[in-house]
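Example 323.
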Amino acid sequence: MFFNKKVILATIGNDISVAEQFLAKGELVAIPTETVYGLAGNALSEKSVLSIFETKNRPSFDPLIVHTDSLEKLDGLVYDFDGMAEELATTFWPGPLTLLLPKRDVIPDLVTSGLDHVAVRIPNHPLTLELLRQLEFPLAAPSANPFGYISPTQASHVEAQLGESIPYILDGGECNVGIESTIVGFVDGVPTIYRLGGLSVEDIENVVGKVNVLPHSSSNPQAPGMLKSHYAPRKPFLLKSRKELESAGNDVAVMVFETPLSNSGSKQRILSPTGDVKEAAHNLFTYLRELDSLEISEIWAEYVPAKGLGLAINDRLRRAAAL
Ligand code: TXA
Ligand code: MG
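Predicted structure in complex with threonylcarbamoyladenylate:
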């Protein structure tokens, strides 16, 4: 039997008061940040948080990041915001840093998947900062993509995948940084990176000294976001040497760092023609999406230089390739 189901697509706009009204009613809104777009809901409402997990098809054991706009508001959400955590926050917020801190009871256990620490950050995007200022609650927001797929860095990316599931996408343009925030926690007082991201290891070490970087692992993930299958395109994605890339056939799309291949034409994306890892991070997810939508059978890519944000990019490339 054929049902003529009416599909209602999200409105895309930049009206903070519309976003605020949906959020206050417990509904979800996609919000821009400097890293990637988030799928936001009231972090203090179990109903809204549950609906985030359902909309993303995300397993409930993968906890969410809580977003706020001020250190004063943060004080009402966590304990022990002092020492190195405070130094990092005052240096990098608003910005692509997430801190793991002991949660207060106002944060529902659902947000942290039962863990006693909550991930928090003040994002750096004018529209979202203004929205957070006006709201009476913080926003829980994972990246606004179906679980396991590439994170969205433009409103149109959100619309393509979640447009039928949410009422509003707050359009803040392209995300400047382009990869998710760096997650820092403290293990026996040692600053520890749980996820490489938009703030480099050097930047963090300049403030707190030597940090420990947790390797990602699918078997025993310390942060569930360390699951290997994250950030994957739909097409098979393979990491190759330069020499192998040169032999890519017509049904293969390629993504290179700086120097174009002579053989790939429009099925090629160059992450940064000037060899800048920041520019590469900015382009990474958009280019992966573009290549994923072409009529090809596989996507091949090369590693980028392992410096600065290059470490986070290579982490995403490895996960996309499920290595
Ligand atoms: O840049 C970002 O961080 C974006 C924007 C929207 O802020 N958000 C984002 O959220 O990337 P999501 O849910 O895609 O990734 C958050 C990661 C997850 O991998 C989760 O496992 C980890 O943060 N995480 C959250 N709470 C945690 C906790 N209490 N302990 C350890 N890891 C945690
Ligand atoms: Mg995500």
